[in-house]
Amino acid sequence: MRTKADLPVKTCATCGRPFAWRRKWARDWENLRYCSKACSGKRRPGSSAAGPDRALVSDRKLA
User: Fold this and answer.
1) Does residue 52 register a pLDDT over 60?
2) How are beta strands 9-11 and 18-20 bridged, if at all?
3) ∠ CA 49-27-29 to the nearest 5 degrees?
């Protein structure tokens, strides 16, 4: 049986904390970047799709 120390580990792109492999992440482990939904929502500036250009679009009134 494997112990937690034997599992692969990644570092969260937002908070920098290490997080270990989990069975529910098995299919998407290669693409996983964040340790939690909270960190996914607090992405660092420059890495989010909703950058400054998107903010300007949402402030405009549509006629």
Assistant:
1) no
2) antiparallel
3) 60
Q: What is the model's pLDDT at position 20?
A: 92
Separation CA 8–CA 36 (nearest Å): 17
| Rounded Cα gap, residues 34 and 13, in angstroms | 6
Q: Is the pLDDT of residue 35 over 60?
A: yes
In this structure, what are the phi and psi dihedrals at residue 32, rounded to the nearest 5 degrees? -70, 130
User: How distant, in Å, are the alpha carbons of 9, 58, 59, 63 from that of 16?
Assistant: 12, 31, 33, 44
